[in-house]
Amino acid sequence: MTRPHKPVVAALLFAAGLLFGTGAHSQDSTAKALQEYRDALQDGNPAELWEIKGEDMWQQPRGPNKVSMEKCDLGLGPGVVKGAYARLPKYFKDTDRVDDLESRLVHCMVSLQGYTRAEATRRVFGGPGAAADMEALVAYVSSQSKGVKMNVALAHPREREAYQMGQKLFYYRGGPHDFACATCHGEDNKRIRLQDLPNLTSKKDAQRAYTTWPAYRVSQGELRSFQWRLYDCFRQQRFPELLFGSDASVALTMFLARNANGAAFAAPAIKR
Amino acid sequence: MKKALVSMAALAAVLFAGIALAQSRSAVGEVEAMRELMRGFKPSGQAGLSRLVQDEVQQFCSDPGWQRNKARIAAIEGQQLAAVKYPADGKLMGNWKAGESIAQSGVGKQFSDNPSQPSGANCYACHQLTPQELSFGTIGPSLRNFGKTRGSSEAIQRYTYAKIYNSRAYSVCTNMPRFGHSEILTEQQIKDVVALLLDPESPVNK
Amino acid sequence: MGEPMRIRAQMAGDKVEVRVLMSHEMETGQRKDGGGNIVPAWFIQNIAVMHGGQTVLSAQWGPAVAKNPFMHFRFAGGRVGEKVSVTWTDNRGDKRTDEVAITAG
Amino acid sequence: MNSVRREVLKAGGGVTVMALAVSAGLLRPEEALAQAAWNKAAFETRSFADTVKALGGAAAVENPGVRFASPTPEIAENGALVPVTVTSSIPKTESIAILVEKNPNTLAANFVVPNGTEPFISTRVKMGQTSDIYALVKADGRYYYAKKEIKVTIGGCGG
């Protein structure tokens, strides 16, 4: 390993310890310091602001029908929120499709509250000064699976099909850059710039990655859902825009969620 | 809307035609399912649905078991190399300083990018290059001292140009984009990145 | 009006441990938007935490307090069931108050 | 706004008037506090020394009674969110301020700690770059401080 002679960017000096290492000690201490920073953010995760807003939205009568979401069936029966996220996506008879949380929430907003599909999906990702109701609902529902072991079933043929198609999409190379999800997420211990990349083909990384979304993204000051995570990955993959709640998005979610089975769900998390 | 439907149909036709030749019924079913899945994307900014239509290489490399097909690998690499367009003026090395800023830039071709701005090569996302830039990725190998260890002979320049122009000419399913072949970089930009890698004055070789 | 705060007030020994998350942009006035225009400063300036008619913490903030602010402190003299309220006002004159009951540790 | 309260505010908003209004039950205490004048001059300072002055002190001395406690990181992966925790063991601690030397304006926050409240505060600030941060404590009318460098890998004040 080479040593940097003149680290010109002081701010990166320590980050550089990760790469060049002025010795095993400095590498360890840098990694330890970064871990301490990440740990320090855990107490008082702003995701909780989305959780309380989402809980309120879940309970309040809303939409043209003026009813709450408390009859919404997320897979464990009408109104059961606890542990629901850890079992999604799954096949639903009433929609005759495999739904993830977000597409299921849209279904309930339409079928129970009387919104049109367009109204229910008008603002699914928040931006500066305008948080999205959808991300609040996602924060609340997912928070109710904290500590619950991921347990996504492949019992129904449609669930198995979704998993297989999600897997295909994961390896599907396209666009001007020939990128697939696997380009960045198919090997251990890789980084893009200084950012660690989870290897989503390995059990351990797949579990850690999936169980820490949704997350409060410090760089954006927003709570981000798993649908957003996929949307933004495809943007960077130079693909066209992933449609919210589409079969493609649900299939890929199914592939990634199922691969996380057995790990305790730990979101909404906080990420840099 | 109408336009979107038409291009969707065109996409479906291409996806279908491309793979339906002499395939088993279940494979046809799979193609059908994949085509359905691609309805989950919509055109946005400069990113149209045609980006989802795979060429032969993309299709080949989307099979996680591609390594087993040795004959296809050699054939595709040969085709890709044969299609490399070298500069008409015969000059392969540009300006390493311009190359460095191209290597730093990660914009280009995303639906959120302004298509009138030049794309970057984003080399640092995956490679170590100059010793000054500490924020580099590790998806690709380190290119530190790339020219120092190889020299800058005509042959090395041609290899380096071709590798950037179309990396698949040398490694069919590499993670690296085909910067010339896919019109991500201009000819001049590729020359500048070649200089960043090979020029003895470039910090990559210092 | 602002969005609701997340307040936790919990007994820890003989003290009340208070954690508050506030929903606020905390714009610095230095950031540019997509069109290159400066986004005007917009931030919480004054905070007051009250218990039993007494101020148990007050603060003045500038725009360098992080977006969606968090604060954590401890005060003596509170009991389970009593109310703790938090009020903020920002530089636009917007204001919000939320209140919780102290819970057992 | 009710008319009594409007009259009170019209009367000047000075501290004395406010205190009277509170004791007379015209204003709820938190309303009175929220009206307390924001120290514009202090938040516009560009150095540690100027901030001390703007807060009403002559000078500040380093004192081990002022401490950065956990969580206060050595490195912040993102300057947009930097946890800072300060404790003071100096008797009669009245207030705890957090200052970031290399931010456009030095003073980030000033907490007033009344009797009965522990001289301990944990919050989060933004840092545009690697910088010294200061914890400035006012105790019995005097100013004391602690200093610590925090390295920032991504600044928190840009676009």
Structure description:
The complex is a heterotetramer of chains A (272), B (206), C (105) and D (159). Chain A has helices at residues 10-17, 24-40, 47-59, 101-111, 117-120, 133-143, 157-171, 181-185, 203-210, 226-236, 247-258, and strands at 90-92, 97-99, 190-192, 195-197, 215-217, 222-224, 241-242, 269-271. By secondary structure, chain A is mainly alpha-helical. Chain A has two domains: 10-40, no CATH class; 47-271, Cytochrome Bc1 Complex, Chain D, domain 2 (Orthogonal Bundle), CATH 1.10.760.10. In chain A, the strands form three sheets. Chain A has a three-stranded mixed beta sheet with strand order 6-5-8. A two-stranded antiparallel ribbon of chain A has the order 1-2. A two-stranded antiparallel sheet of chain A has the order 3-4. In chain A, helix 7 (157-171) packs across helix 11 (247-258) and helix 10 (226-236) packs across helix 11. The longest helix of chain A has 17 residues, at 24-40. The longest helix of chain B is centred in the N-terminal third of the chain and has 19 residues, at 2-20. In chain B, helix 1 packs antiparallel against helix 2 (25-37), helix 5 (96-104) packs across helix 9 (187-198) and helix 8 crosses helix 9 (187-198). With 206 residues, chain B is mainly α. Chain B is globular, with a radius of gyration of 19 Å. Chain B folds into two domains: 1-53, no CATH class; 96-205, Cytochrome c-like domain (Cytochrome Bc1 Complex, Chain D, domain 2, Orthogonal Bundle), CATH 1.10.760. Chain C is mostly beta strands and 105 residues long. Chain C has one domain: Immunoglobulin-like, CATH 2.60.40.10. In chain C, strands 4-3-6-7 form a four-stranded antiparallel beta sheet, with no helix packed on it. By secondary structure, chain D is an alpha+beta fold. Chain D has two domains: 3-35, no CATH class; 40-152, SoxY domain (Immunoglobulin-like, Sandwich). Chain D has helices at 3-10, 15-23, 29-35, 40-43, 48-54; strands at 60-62, 66-69, 75-76, 82-88, 93-100, 107-112, 120-125, 131-139, 142-152. In chain D, the strands form two sheets. In chain D, strands 1, 3, 5, 6, 8 and 9 form a six-stranded mixed beta sheet that branches. A three-stranded antiparallel beta sheet of chain D has the order 2-4-7, with no helix packed on it. The longest helix of chain D is centred in the first third of the chain and has 9 residues, at 15-23. The termini of chain D are far apart. Chains A and B meet through helix 1, helix 7, helix 8, strand 3 and helix 10 of A and helix 2, strand 1, helix 3 and helix 6 of B. Strand 7 (241-242) of chain A pairs antiparallel with strand 1 (41-42) of chain B, so a sheet runs across the interface.
